[in-house]
Amino acid sequence: MANNIDLDKETLFIVSQTFKALGDPTRIRILHLLSKKECSVGEIVEHLSLGQSTVSHQLRFLKNLRLVKSRREGTSIYYSPEDDHIMDILEKTIEHSNHD
Amino acid sequence: MANNIDLDKETLFIVSQTFKALGDPTRIRILHLLSKKECSVGEIVEHLSLGQSTVSHQLRFLKNLRLVKSRREGTSIYYSPEDDHIMDILEKTIEHSNHD
DNA sequence: TGATAATATGAACATATACTCATATACGGT
DNA sequence: ACCGTATATGAGTATATGTTCATATTATCA
């Protein structure tokens, strides 16, 4: 049928990719941490007790979707949120889940 | 370290499950359709050209998370959204992705 | 330039996910 | 009670995903 009620392929792809990014505990923890303060990879590793490689992989994932951005400072690379809309959704949903 | 900046296990589970639900194209299409109008399983199958079993499985998934609810009418079962907050997030993100 | 620290990358592996097929269940009409 | 229609369920399968390990890259400093 493929009528007007359905969503187009591209919208579907973008939206699903975006939510998929928020659908993993590790990425949620990273984003939530970054919402509090800009962090280097090493700081994320320490704060969340994760493997360096794990964090690096997930940051690349998030950066590809433009959910985070990075800047270099010496040998360290600092990450921070880039998409206000998505961060807002994440934080609101965390709050929402807390008073149930 | 496990400090105050990190999220507790339960919150993490609920939030990730919720976003995981929105991270699949099929479920997005179903939820978006239901946001327009209450539908029976058969109507969803027709509108979205999906397999009956696929739709049924996904509806169970969504119902477990209390994202949709159902009512019986004869042999048909009609589904509709149950979580306003999540539906709002979905619709807003769809809009957000459209004017980029 | 060599050594060290911080981060990124690729391959391998284990698990999770979504679909399909076949079958079961539930209801209404006859 | 039997049949047809609508929906649900379980097993099997193929693909996607997340982590780990080993190694590569990049930058700083002596």
TrEMBL record, chains A, B:
InterPro entries attached to this UniProt entry: ArsR-like_HTH, HTH_ArsR_DNA-bd_dom, Metal_resp_trans_reg, WH-like_DNA-bd_sf, WH_DNA-bd_sf
Keyword Ribonucleoprotein recorded: no
Keyword annotations from UniProtKB, A to Z: DNA-binding, Transcription, Transcription regulation
SUPFAM superfamilies per the UniProt record, alphabetical: Winged helix' DNA-binding domain
Any single Pfam family the record assigns to this protein: HTH_5
Entry-linked SMART domains: HTH_ARSR
Gene3D superfamilies per record: Winged helix-like DNA-binding domain superfamily/Winged helix DNA-binding domain
Keyword Hydrolase among UniProt keywords: no
Superkingdom: Bacteria
Domain HTH arsR-type, first and last residues per copy: 7-100
NCBIfam families referenced in this protein's UniProt entry, alphabetically: HTH_metalloreg
Protein name as it appears in the record: Metalloregulator ArsR/SmtB family transcription factor
Organism, scientific name: Evansella alkalicola
